[in-house]
User: Fold Plasma membrane ATPase from Trypanosoma brucei.
Amino acid sequence: MTYGLPRNHSLEKKHKNHGKSSKKKNRQNKKNGNNTKENCDDTQITTQQASAKKKTTTTTTTPSWLIFLRNLWRPMPIVMWIVIIIQFALQHFADGAVLLGIQLANALIGWYETIKAGDAVAALKNSLKPIATAYRDGTWQQIDAALLVPGDLVKLGSGSAVPADCTINEGVIDVDEAALTGESLPVTMGTEHMPKMGSNVVRGEVEATVQYTGQSTFFGKTATLLQSVEADIGSIRIILMRVMVILSSFSFVLCLACFIYLMVNFKQKFRDALQFAVVVLVVSIPIALEIVVTTTLAVGSKKLSKHKIIVTRLTAIETMSGVNMLCSDKTGTLTLNKMEIQEQCFTFEKGHDLRSLLVLSALAAKWREPPRDALDTMVLGAADLDECDNYEQLEFVPFDPTTKRTAATLVDKRSGEKFSVTKGAPHVILQMVYNQDEINDSVVDIIDKLASRGIRCLSVAKTDSAGRWHLCGILTFLDPPRPDTKETIRRSRQYGVDVKMITGDHVLIAKEMCRMLDLDPNILTVEKLPKVDVNNMPSDLGEKYGDMMLSVGGFAQVFPEHKFLIVEALRQRGYTCAMTGDGVNDAPALKRADVGIAVHGATDAARAAADMVLTDPGLSVVVDAMFVSRQVFQRMLSFLTYRISATLQLVCFFFIACFSLTPHDYGIEDPKFQVFYLPVMMFMLITLLNDGCLMTIGYDRVVPSKLPQRWNIPVVFTSAIIMSVVACASSLLLLWMALDAYDEKRYPNSWFGKLNIPSLKEGKIVTLLYLKISISDFLTLFSSRTGGRFFFSMAPGTILLVGAVISLVISTIAASVWKKSSSDGVPTEGLAVGGDTAAKLLPLWVWIYCILWWIVQDVVKVLAHMLMEAFDIFGCVSRSGRGADVECGSVCKDGEGGAPKEPTL
Assistant:
């Protein structure tokens, strides 16, 4: 039923042989291995079925509870368990409970992501169980298709699903293979064809012999492809793991050194020395790192849902920010998956135009009844049906695969004229007209030219008063691109994302579609693709075939394994690939891609394999996904830079203070205050306020990059280290000034004395440093969020700003009125408690001190980024180009100049 394409002469030859004797056909069927009712051996089938059941292998799945436990027994969770046990051993039950809650939350997040990864295979396996009409025990029975075995005789009728890969014994049927190949129109199949599992019969009825079942079918192999794809934990998970390992290892080494130093030099009790080391270690380990990142991704997911994009794997949002290659299925994705009549038509009789040809086509159908097939749907949707009502249909001949046309006899109610009309395949109609010899060359030339462009056509003819057929004209039709497809491709390129079309359609159709969408019309077919075992994919595909694939605009006549192979080769070539699709044939490629996107109306298997699901037609929202994902990336980049900086400045401050700024050296004789550190309560308050504020970073205002993004960890660490050095140095300087002013003899010559700041007792020195560390932490966040630019270059989001202000106010008030005590052996006292007016203004003085150093910190950060750009350190510039070399995730000028103008999200 594919009009305008080259004729299938072998199929026509088969039609002529349908009258052969049943005896001869049965002999031939036995020879070919095809069963009929006359030769089907029930006993043999039963034996085969029993044997098949014994050979059936059951797929073992990991219990969900075991997956959850595994998430509690990895390198980082093990470190956390050690810290939790120590906290409970030291009777710090509140601290231990908080850490335990965070540990379980992280494990739950990992468990949820792992469980969802198996949904694609499960959905596809469930779809492998249609009902089959099979010949068993001397009668036709409806059985579970899973019980079919090769050699079974089945009946394929209109409206039924093909239960296995079969060969047709005799006759022809029309089969809808859209879910497998993307072909919009049904395909006529005869004895030389093999209807495949996953397709549907739309017209006709035949008997067929089962050749392949279950996982051995073309459709079943798709499940095998899905299973061959290992779950991708996402680059953000890898980055988080590396950062946590680096920071934890660094902190552990410094804390261990402090522990040994305290035990040897100060003869501290094991419990006290261990408490100091563990408290500093707990605060320095980025425990809530994964939770904050997940929260940020969840906020991005919520924004995407407003654009009709459902995210099924949160880490796909971060991956989407780095996508630089978009591979798209054609039918139903780039196109409407609905044939439409085109404006271009060809007439061969005077008085006819597009409108009249459509009316005649509609008259060759039941125009006031539901359309019987895709062609009738197309014609009746375009024709003036009110005009058709001026005619009475006397006789109607529906479409027959053997004749490839429909026909009707009508009478004009107005004039009484009686005539017949027909529509169908151009070569069939041409053989019917009275003047075939005169118009043959011109008609064939038109058909060939249209076919060379992948445009299908439909001929319309009408009889005259003498009963002769006249060719009235030729209608053209195709599955047109969606209205927004061309603009979506343009915008994708504007964002540094190349686009490749992948389709199972004919190469001519693919070329025409590329021309319409401004894609390169150079199309690669399966003959030029390598033949490889998808279960053992070579690692050099990208190296061998990458250039060839990059030189074309798309791929045609491909099967699921080819789509899988194309995506894998591009990934090996260094591209971060997104794949869009809607059918079962797209599911393996969706799973293999870095980001799989199931479009509106996709099958269950495609949706389950995808990371994102579009709930509205069209691809325009894919660009919105790029925009939002790059915003999310910038927020995670800000947070990660801050978290590294905050950890380093904290652990380095206490490490250096432990060795270099001991209170005893400055006249403090308290035996319990031999080493400077903060009580557990202050540490936990810093941690809780910081993490609470950071939960709002998902709402921060950011400028997304114009180009795809990838993590440049050396630049991230360099920026974080520079900021942490300044913050740590300022904290050490403040501690030294406070200790230096403790002794009355030293006070006049100390910095505090020169600035008229009163000398502070032990408790106020501790609280002073608590406030300084708290303020510096939050100010560092505002420096981190602007990358290589000054902090005032971009205002923060309202929610983040409010969260930071609330946290800073709480920290300031707590430091001002902190109760005088000796918690954990560390003296504490509120800065505004007691003393004269100058003493009560200590919190204000700390604020001024922190702001001045914040400005210094920001200037040093900007200068460092300028230096990295000038000398291309860590690939800061060279890795910010287009295509596979894009590495601008944290380049210094990322997003500078503004992104392409987009609606506020």
User: Anything to note?
Assistant: The chain is about 50% helix and 15% strand. Confidence is low (pLDDT under 50) at residues 4-33, 38-44, 50-59, 880-905. Residues 620-660 form the longest helix (41 residues).
